[in-house]
C-alpha cells in the first residue's frame, strides 16, 4: 500500500507528468486499486444557489461582473427551491448535493440562510457540500456545526500563473480559507482548472500545492476550462486531451486516497477520453444536465457511459442500495 506523502518537490511531480503514458496510467491504476473499488464512481449534483454579478474577476468565470456574459442573474434561492432540487438529485442517484454561490464571501446574514439549506438537505439523507467563496474561521465553524460535510474551495492553478487569472484575491487568501475549513473539521474539496494557457510545470505546481497540504483534500475536482463567450479566456488554444488525462493520473498518484473528480468540461470530452480518465484514477463526477451555469452531459448520457464501461454509481450513506445492479437498472 502506498503511503501518502506531503513532501513532493516540483521536479518530482513534473517527472510524473513526463512519464510515458502507459507507465503513468499503470502506476495510477495500481495506486487506485489499493485504495478504491476500481468500478465505482461517486456521484454529486450541483446547484447554483446564487448566480452571477460576482465582484471577483476570475478570467474563466461566466459569473464575474467584470465580464460581459449573457447569464441570468439570480438572488439567493429560497429554501423550498433548493430542497426540491436536492430531492430530484437524490431521485436521480446522486449521493452528494453541492451548492455554489457567486460570492467573494458570504455575509453573516447569508450564512444564516445557507445554514438552513445545509440542515434541510441533510435531512433528505444527502451529503452536503458548499462553495461560497472565502470563509472566516468563525463562519467555517458555524457551517461545520450545522453539519456541512464538504467545503469546496479551489486553488485553480499554480501560484505563479494565478496572477494571470485573478487579481481580486490572492493565492494566500485561498490557502487561508482552506485552513479554516480544515480546522473546523469539514472535509476539504479542492482542485483546479486545466486549459487556461498554463504550462505543464504550472500543472505540476498546482498538484504539488494540494499534495503538500498537511492533510490531502478528501475530494480533488479537476476541471477542464469551459470557454464561455464574453470571458477573457474564450478562444484560447484548447488543451491536448491526453495532457488532461496525464494530470488526472498524477493527481491519483499524489493523493492516493482522495476522490479525484472529473469535473467541468465533460460535454467537450468523448466517452473514450472520459474512459481514459477513469482508468487514470478519476472516481467521481458531477451528475445532471447543468453544472452551475453551463451544460453538463445529462443523466441518460452518463448512465449509458457507465453501462459501456461497467461502472456503477457509488451508494451513499443513506441512499437506497443499488450496488449489485448495473447502472442502467436504476434508470
Ligand atoms: N464563488 C465561489 C468561489 O469562486 O470560490 C464559488 C463558486 S466558483 C464558480 C467554483 C469553481 O468553479 C471555481 O473555483 C472554478 O474552479 C470553477 N469554474 C468556474 N468557471 C469555470 C469554467 N468556465 N470552467 C471550469 N471551471 C470553472
Ligand atoms: C468545481 O471544481 N467545479 C464545479 C464546482 N467545483 C463548484 C463548478 C464548475 C463550474 C463550471 C462553470 C459554470 O457552470 O458556471
Ligand atoms: Fe465569483 Fe467564484 Fe466566479 Fe470567481 S469563480 S467570479 S469568485 S463565482
UniProtKB/TrEMBL annotation:
Classification via PANTHER family: BIOTIN SYNTHASE, BIOTIN SYNTHASE, MITOCHONDRIAL
Cofactor: how and how many bound: Binds 1 [4Fe-4S] cluster. The cluster is coordinated with 3 cysteines and an exchangeable S-adenosyl-L-methionine.
Domain Radical SAM core: 39-263
Protein name: Biotin synthase
The encoding gene: bioB
Membership in a protein family: Belongs to the radical SAM superfamily. Biotin synthase family.
Cofactor: [4Fe-4S] cluster; [2Fe-2S] cluster
Record pathway: Cofactor biosynthesis; biotin biosynthesis; biotin from 7,8-diaminononanoate: step 2/2
Swiss-Prot/TrEMBL GO biological process terms: biotin biosynthetic process
Species the sequence originates in: Thioalkalivibrio versutus
Binding site for [4Fe-4S] cluster: 54, 58, 61
PROSITE patterns: RADICAL_SAM
